[in-house]
Fold:
Amino acid sequence: MKVPFADLKAQYRAHQASFDAAMRAVIEDTAFVGGKYVRQFEQEFAREIGVKHCIGCGNGTDAIYIVLKMLGIGAGDEVITTSISWIATSETISQTGATPVFVDLDPTGCMDVDLVEAAITPRTRAIIPVHLYGQAARMGKLLDIARRHNLIVVEDCAQAHLAESGGKQVGTLGRAATFSFYPGKNLGAYGDAGAIVTNDDELAAACRRFANHGSLTKHEHLIEGINSRLDGMQAALLSAKLPHLREWTRCRREIAAKYDRLLAGMRDVKPLPRNTEGTHVFHLYVVEVENRAALQAALTAAGIETGIHYPRALPFLPAYRRLNKNESDFPRAAHMQSRILSLPMFPEMTDAMIEYVCATIRQSAA
Ligand SMILES: *Cc1c(COP(=O)(O)O)cnc(C)c1O
Structure:
């Protein structure tokens, strides 16, 4: 049996007629950039998340950059974030001219909120929690710290569409939040796409203007901006997919529960602990493994694809050599980066596939 890491084709096959029709309509209407399909998706997604504004943009990386920039963050500022994430989270802090300040992890893989206060300096302006792998970070305490220190919270929700924290949907908890619709994300376009969500009217207008060359009205450029817009084809496809997102999320949770059951009691392969304050939408199903290289090789040999998210924690990447950090500064990140392994996870995964993956794991590890 072959088990892919994800299977975007299976989803397309199941909904081909509606996805094709959505994209064909955009061509018929020549509504390629901006236009009615983009407005419609923005409204639908804002409603789904439970916020006032959604601003579509080119991708989830630009979404973070745009919102930080429009919050006035720049040279001389510090922004606190987590030490294991996709580089977009910290890269965009640097793009504004500010400095990323990394914080070590808790056992779930999210930022250890108990370490945040020690990272605050007079230059700190904002905190970017990442709901990593689809699991809500510990937002209760984080929001409390942010309030007491007058810091802005921008949630990176790229992996966590529809996850909840303390009964509230992620994306609604801070001043603003960003989403990615990269094809492999829980809600994925057929190309790059992203969005900013916020309840702040002024911030929403500023982000929309900046993402469109500094202009809300054609040829009126109040400021210089960038070109980072959601295109009509992606918006129409996302609108066709959005009604299925809750069902796909339910499937991901069911698959995770099956993995949990079939891997229970193993000594050398353990699912990452979960944060009980929030819910998990399982963008990824991640285990900690004693001997990762051996297990990954055994799975590959058995036709099972796996991934590592991510093999090197952000502070240890060559890109951040200037920060002069070493493994003793982030002991949990250093420990996890060599042990985490992401198992296949996609809504269409069959019981037979899950059983085959777990049987193969039990054959090659204790
Ligand atoms: C995917 C991702 C991003 C960036 O999104 P793109 O759409 O690929 O630019 C940012 N943060 C996290 C945590 C991500 O997983």
About this structure: Residues 59-61, 85-86, 88-89, 130, 156, 158-159, 180, 182, 192, 194 surround pyridoxal-5'-phosphate (CB under 6 Å). The longest strand covers residues 53-57. Residues 269 and 289 are 5 Å apart (CA to CA). Residues 245-263 form the longest helix (19 residues).
